[in-house]
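Lecture 7, part 2: worked example. A protein chain together with manganese (II) ion.
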Amino acid sequence: MAEPRIVTCSRETKETGITVTLNLDGSGKNEINSGIGFFDHMLDGFARHGFFDLSLTCKGDLHVDDHHTIEDCGIVLGTAIKEAIGDKAGITRFGHFILPMDDALILSAVDLSGRPYFSYDLQFTGEKCGEMETQMCREFFYAVSYSAAMNLHLKQISGINDHHIMEGAFKAFGKALDMATSFDARINGVLSTKGSL
Ligand SMILES: [Mn+2]
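Predicted complex, written out as structure tokens:
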């Protein structure tokens, strides 16, 4: 295989300071410190099940709320994904997974098309999981999808427990992205009728 696809991205604003190092060809080991325990737990599931090595540190304005921290982590992670996949030569491009987690069944489908599109259909009943607002799940994945310029669909097929629904979504996304970023020896160059993505 070619060199591992590793990038580091940083972003500094008055609201957050974030550094992400992502290795698409990793083993799932990760070190996540966003300041929000539940969100760290979600990113651990994404990295572990996508076999991405991920380190993320964020110093955010959590005295306000969790909004800027989670949204901005999505922006930086999406940027890292975009940079790490590079010219997309030889990769599968499409990925999908249906992940069961107890009561929850979550579908994730991605196309690393270069055209951002986001479709989201998760329904939470509570306002929070730990210190993470459930409505920030949508903001996070929206930020990832447009920063990475990917088409991302997340759909809840079933589910009752908010923790399971959200964790199922992060893991399903990791699995789908792992598939989309994987190399296929049959692919010569970029897999597109247009010749580039
Ligand atoms: Mn859990």
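The pocket of manganese (II) ion is lined by residues 41, 163, 167 (CB under 6 Å). The helical segments are 37-50, 67-85, 136-147, 162-181. Keep this in mind for problem set question 3.
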